[in-house]
Amino acid sequence: xxxxxxxxxxxxxxxxxxxxxxxxxxxxxxxxxxxxxxxxxxxxxxxxxxxxxxxxxxxxxxxxxxxxxxxxxxxxxxxxxxxxxxxxxxxxxxxxxxxxxxxxxxxxxxxxxxxxxxxxxxxxxxxxxxxxxxxxxxxxxxxxxxxxxxxxxxxxxxxxxxxxxxxxxxxx
Length: 172
Hints:
Elements: H1 2-9, H2 19-27, H3 33-42, H4 45-58, H5 77-88, H6 93-102, H7 128-151
Helix pairs in contact: 4-5
């Protein structure tokens, strides 16, 4: 039962089974006991927490802005909880991505936290050209993250140059 339980618990919620869960599995006499245990693992809130962590890493989520001042984002947790809830409720991937890109239009505004999850520089220049360049950098970061997270295709390189092996040329 031990290896079988580890193969179930470690990938799904990311935690080892408790002693009580191991004993319950070993002592189970009913044929449906394993199916009930699998259902228990996949309906646990730990499941969404485990798999949301992967998405959080991909979209460079942070609870502070980074850079010089690094102020705390007091409301960032709403987006994190949206991710956990989406995984726990087995939200279809196409809907999951749509909500994050256009959540305001789909009545899922909290999902658009995706667009502003990365670093943000509060230091503004008095020079309008530098300020506009900084805003362009922020928008390029959103686009690159969208390509990387949704398509598995980093788009950041194409901002400046073409690569002969890259399917997204600078012109596009």
